[in-house]
Amino acid sequence: MAQVGPIGILTTTFPAASSAAGTSGVTLESTLDSIAAHKLGAVQFDLSCGGLPSMPDTIDLAQADRIRAALAARGIGMAALSGTFNMIHPDPAVRDDGLRRLAVLAAACERLGTQVITLCSGTRDTTSMWRRHPDNDTPDAWRDLVAVMTRAARIAEDHNVTLAFEPEVNNAADSAQKARALIDAIGSPRLKVVMDGANIFHAGELPRMREILTEAFELLGDHIALAHAKDLDHDGDAGHLPAGHGLLDYALYTKLLKQSAYAGPLVLHGLRPDQIDGCAAFLRTHLGES
C-alpha cells in the first residue's frame, strides 16, 4: 500500500494576505505560522496567501523566493499551486486569458517549489466556476474543454509541470468516467486529477457510494496528483462539509487511496480554522498514523 500523507490544507482556509503593507494583520508569514501550529506538513497554495491575485499577470521572482523560503522555514511543502479558471466559459476571450495566466503560474512553479497546478474543468455558467449549467453536457462544451485542456497540457509540457483537474458534479468533467475520457483524449503524461471523494455523486447516487468510489479509483487511481479531504451531506452537488462531519465513507476512501499509486498529501478544505485539529486527527486515524 502507498503511504499517503502528510495532512495538508488549502491556504484559502485562512484570510487572504494584504497586498499593501499595513492594511491588514494577515501576512504570508502569519498564515504559514498558523498552518505550522496545526502540525500540517503541506499546502495547496493559492497566491492570495502571498498578497497576490490567485492568477496574476506576472509573478515577481523575489516574491516567489519569499514564498518558497517562508514555507521551507516552517517545514511545509507546497503540494500544488491553485490555478483554477473556467476552462469552458462561453466567452473564448475568458478562456484565452485563463490560459495566459496559467502559463505565468507554470513558469513560476520551479521557483516556488512545486510541480503541480490544480485546475477546474469549468462550466458554462458565467458567474461561478462551481455552479452547474445544463449546457455542460453538450458536445460543444466537451469540444471546448478538450481544446483548452490540450493547450494547457502544452503549457505544462513546456514548463515540466503537472496539471491536476478535479472531477466534480458541477463541472464539465463531472464523473470519474468523464475524467478518464478527458485524460485519454488529451494523451499527455502531464495531465492528472485531484481526487476528492465528496465531489462525484450525482443526485440519487449516494446509495451506490461504495460502487462509485471503487470505480473512481479503478479508473483514476494511477492518475492522482493530489487528494482532497472534505465531506458531504447530500448528493447532486460538491461536498461542503469538513472531513468526518458528513456521509462520506472515509474508511473506504482512505483505503482506496492507500491501495492506489498515490503517495502524496491529503489536503483538507471546506472547513473553518477552528475545525482543523479535529479533522486532521480524524484523517490520521483513518490513515493509521499515531
Describe this structure in words.
- The radius of gyration is 18 Å and the shape is globular.
- It has an eight-stranded parallel β-barrel with strand order 1-2-3-4-5-6-7-8, surrounded by five helices.
- The protein has 290 residues and is of the alpha/beta class.
- It starts with 6 loop residues before the first strand and ends with a helix.
- It has helices spanning 28-37, 61-73, 92-112, 139-159, 176-186, 209-220, 250-259, 276-287, and strands at residues 7-10, 42-45, 77-82, 116-119, 162-165, 191-195, 224-229, 266-268.
- Helix 6 (209-220) links the parallel strand 6 and strand 7 (224-229).
- The mean pLDDT is 95.
Low-confidence regions: none
Share of helix among residues?
A: 25-40%
Helix/strand class: alpha/beta
- Please give the largest β-sheet: 8 strands, parallel, barrel
| Anisotropy-based shape | globular
The neighbouring-strand order within the major sheet is 1-2-3-4-5-6-7-8
Rg (CA only) = 18 Å
Oligomer: single chain
Q: Strand fraction band?
A: 5-15%
How would you concisely characterize the structure shown here?
Helix content is 38%, strand content 12%.
What distinguishing features does this structure have?
single chain, 290 residues, alpha/beta, eight-stranded parallel barrel, 8 helices, 8 strands, globular
How is the secondary structure organized here?
Elements: E1 7-10, H1 28-37, E2 42-45, H2 61-73, E3 77-82, H3 92-112, E4 116-119, H4 139-159, E5 162-165, H5 176-186, E6 191-195, H6 209-220, E7 224-229, H7 250-259, E8 266-268, H8 276-287
Parallel strand pairs: 1-2, 1-8, 2-3, 3-4, 4-5, 5-6, 6-7, 7-8
